[in-house]
Specification:
The chain has about 280 residues and is an alpha/beta fold. The protein has 8 helices and 7 strands. Strands 5-4-6-7 form a 4-stranded parallel β-sheet, with helices on one face. The radius of gyration is 20 Å and the shape is elongated.
């Protein structure tokens, strides 16, 4: 079974239309320093990046991190600590070559102690380039399209989850499939917090639920499909089956593996490390 790299992504509607007005060189949010986490909403969190030319980011539990994409989507340049140590097949879609250049731009500005007009113009050019890159390669829809480029062009997709708790890779990728296929991509069981009509506050979720919750229109799910889920698997109603997290459960796998060819089964893994390995 072929193995392909994958990464987090961001809903396309979260990306700013143009370069925002800048009032700071670097955003106040410092990863790991909770005293700088002064935002109380998605909008105030995003605004901290929009008003800044640069924002600090780094490896978190693993290299891939929602923060990288939130910085880019809000027209800000990530200053990525230890970028040179990023493994080649990790965050394969991230614009590491461009960020390597902008890291040096940031360090030069820090060394000078201020930004001059030449720096501003150069940063704006980079921001424009990075926004275009993000819209093209880093959206949830782009990630769904990338996956389909490896498995073919289905008409209907069954997206199975063994655990419906928040999972960045699963939630974002599912959102991308919903953007592409609507209710023809059926999530089972329903991942409720990705839908805009989710009635609960997501502040207790990972990352306060920012960016990855309440992004999908309720009309993009047909609840009636739940009633015949096993029957539809047996009858090969869906063209491919996607498991949202290899490590978090594989519901109906005995049935799926008996009915579907291996090329039509996709396993996603968004863990910080392979949980099957020794730590």
């Amino acid at each position: 079974m072929p193995v392909n790299p994958i990464s987090f992504s961001i809903p396309p509607e979260k990306i700013v239309d143009k370069i925002p007005l800048k009032t700071r060189v670097v955003a106040h949010i410092i990863p790991g320093d909770t005293s700088t986490y002064i935002y109380d909403s998605e909008e105030s969190y995003y605004q901290g990046y929009r008003e800044s030319y640069f924002a600090i980011t780094m490896k978190k539990g693993g290299w891939d991190c929602m923060r990288h994409y939130e910085i880019l989507a809000n027209g800000c340049i990530p200053y990525f600590w230890d970028l040179e140590n990023l493994p080649p097949n990790t965050m394969a879609h991230f614009p590491r070559e461009i960020i390597a250049e902008t890291n040096q731009v940031y360090l030069n500005i820090v060394k000078k102690g201020a930004m001059d007009q030449t720096d501003i113009e150069k940063c704006n050019q980079y921001i424009d380039e990075l926004l275009n890159y993000t819209r093209t390669h880093l959206t949830t829809t782009a990630m769904a399209t990338y996956i389909l480029s490896k498995v073919g062009c289905p008409n209907r997709i069954l997206f199975l989850s063994g655990d419906i708790q928040p999972d960045y890779l699963r939630c974002l990728t599912l959102s991308g499939f919903k953007n592409r296929f609507g209710s023809a991509c059926h999530d089972y069981p329903k991942v409720p917090h990705i839908y805009k009509d989710y009635p609960h506050n997501c502040a207790d979720f990972w990352g306060k639920g920012i960016t990855y919750t309440k992004t999908v229109d309720r009309e993009k799910r047909n609840d009636h499909y739940d009633e015949t889920i096993v029957e539809d698997i047996v009858n090969h109603v869906y063209d491919i089956v996607v498991y949202g997290s290899y490590h978090r459960g594989l519901p109906f796998f005995d049935v799926v593996s008996a009915i579907y060819q291996s090329k039509d089964i996709v396993f996603l893994c968004g863990e910080d490390c392979d949980l099957a390995c020794d730590n």
